[in-house]
Amino acid sequence: MTIFTKIVNGSGAVPSGRLLAFGMWLRNHQVLVRRLQWAVVGIYAILLIVPVLMPLPGLASHIWNNVTVFAQFVFWGIWWPGVLVSMLLFGRLWCGLLCPEGALTEFASRHGRGRAIPRWVRWPGWPFVAFVLTTVYGQMISVYQYPAPVLLILGGSTLGAMIVGYLYGRNKRVWCRYLCPVNGVFGVLAKLAPMHYGVDRAKWDLNAATHSHEHRFNCAPLVAVKNMESPSPCHMCGRCSGFHDAVALQSRSPNDEIVRLSGRTATIWDSLLIITGLMGVAIGAFEWSSSPWFVEIKQMLAMALVNHNIIWPLQATLPWWILTNYAALNDVLTVLDGAVLLGYIAATALVLSVLISIPLKLACRVTRSRGGQPFFHLSHALIPLAASGVILGLSAQTVTLLRADGFALAWVPMARLALLIAATTWSWWLGTSILVRKDGGAVQKVAASLLFALALVAPVYAWVLMFWIW
Ligand code: SF4
């Protein structure tokens, strides 16, 4: 295999020896990768099913002596934050190498009906809609706290992955490409990854005729590899590595895709996922339980209902799979609680979306960028802050669980502050880098950069409220 020496995709990245070799190693060890995936499927199944069969943990239960608390810590304290961080470091390597749902859907597809993918599955709004629905539903049934909701949400998603795999495609991951609730989030975060499978188009075309007997590869998540520019849909499985001597795992600038490529590729669904999903719905979902506003609104509504002699919303409860209902543990949400919860998340998403979008739109105006595309492009610059938010939110679970078990974590507030400052600065830098490439003089560009900075204020303040004020 030739080591490429030319610049690939105009990104300024040159395949480095070790990464390139790792990509080739992955291609040549797919059997090992598959065994690894089945091992993860086994661990995943144990963590998902065993806690449901056990009694709910009591006050004396700890990570080290109770399987339910242990599974809770592994899923929400290590697994999910770890997967999100891995997206930023390695792209979607998790999806291609370790994800149990990916392995199961591909397995089902290998032995399934192999039907054509219907149009409704290809709808580009699924990543946003599926993320919002799963996030909100998870809060309604307290997915971070109890094992049955975990089985319902994660197990339901896995079942969906297997059914879709069985029905559509052959040896493919149709679920992962179109319907997985975190596909959109993973794709967005992977845009910052400092590595990707770069494709040398000229070499591909040149070698296509002479390498006609070369091994064929199966790209399970249905990426058009020849034209691949972004690692967003790529599961980094390595199967295409070295194809036509034109595909190689290589390093790249983590800023390059957002500043340069997103100008062409960003869509309205990306903007909705980043602004309304990751910076709106997710913030509302993470902070409602610690918000004094939530309590005040609930009390206000309760008083109003009592004054009008409408008592049932304060007393009525629903089954646990609709709204949290664990009477034995004194943890029950009434219909009123549920309504305020939904209203709180919706209001947070709306207010943050407006407070972020208006300065972004004004920044586009100032640089005379018309139409939706410049706005969609600029919203990609928010990805570092959006990513740090979900990582901070999920790691709050890690901290809560560890503190409950007596670990002193005095360094955590400083670490959170450092991450928030770094992510905000990175987002501002990306936004400014996009804006300075637009039309207009220095004054307009400085004004646009300041407007972009203004868009960062509301989400940062929301995290400050949650971690330092409430
Ligand atoms: S493009 Fe497809 S085959 Fe190539 S590494 Fe990505 S997921 Fe694997």
Folded structure, characterized:
The structure is a single chain. With 470 residues, this protein is mainly α. The chain folds into two domains: 254 residues, no CATH class; 204 residues, no CATH class. It is built from 19 helices and four strands. The strands form two sheets. Strands 1-2 form a two-stranded antiparallel ribbon. A hairpin with a 4-residue loop joins strand 3 and strand 4. The longest helix is centred in the C-terminal third of the chain and has 32 residues. It is globular and about 80 Å long. The relative contact order is 0.12. The N terminus is likely disordered. Bound molecules: iron/sulfur cluster (SF4). Iron/sulfur cluster binds next to loops.
Estimated helix fraction = 55-70%
Percentage of residues in DSSP E strands:
under 5%
Which class best fits the helix and strand makeup? mainly alpha
> How far apart lie the N and C ends?
58 Å
* Main beta sheet strand tally, sense and closure: 2 strands, antiparallel
Rg over alpha carbons: 24 Å
List of distinct ligands in this structure = iron/sulfur cluster
The overall pLDDT average reads 92
Summarize this, please?
This protein is mostly helical. It has helices spanning 17-28, 30-53, 67-90, 93-97, 100-110, 126-140, 147-167, 174-179, 183-189, 201-210, 256-265, 268-287, 292-307, 312-315, 335-366, 373-380, 383-404, 412-435, 442-469, and strands at residues 195-199, 247-251, 325-326, 331-332. A hairpin with a 4-residue loop joins strand 3 (325-326) and strand 4 (331-332).
